Amino acid sequence: MDVNQERLVNSFIKLVQIDSESGDEKKITEYLKKELASLGFKVIQDKIGNLIASNGPEPLMALCAHVDTVKPGKGIKPIVTKDGEIKTNGDTILGADDKSGVASILEILHTLKENGKSIDLEIVFTVQEELGLIGSTALDFSLLKSKRAINLDAGPEDILIGEPSIMHFDIEIIGKAAHSGIHPEQGINVVEIAVEAIKNLKWGRIDDETTSNLGQINAGIAINIVPERATLLAEIRSRNLKTFDRYCKELVGEFNKAAKKFGGKVAIKAIQRTRAYIVSENDPLVKSVAWAIQKNGITPEIKPTGGATDANNFNSHGIVAITTGSCGESCHSKRESIKVTGLTLGAQIVMDAILSLKK
Question: What angle do CA 71, 75, 79 make, to 5 degrees?
Answer without folding.
Answer: 100
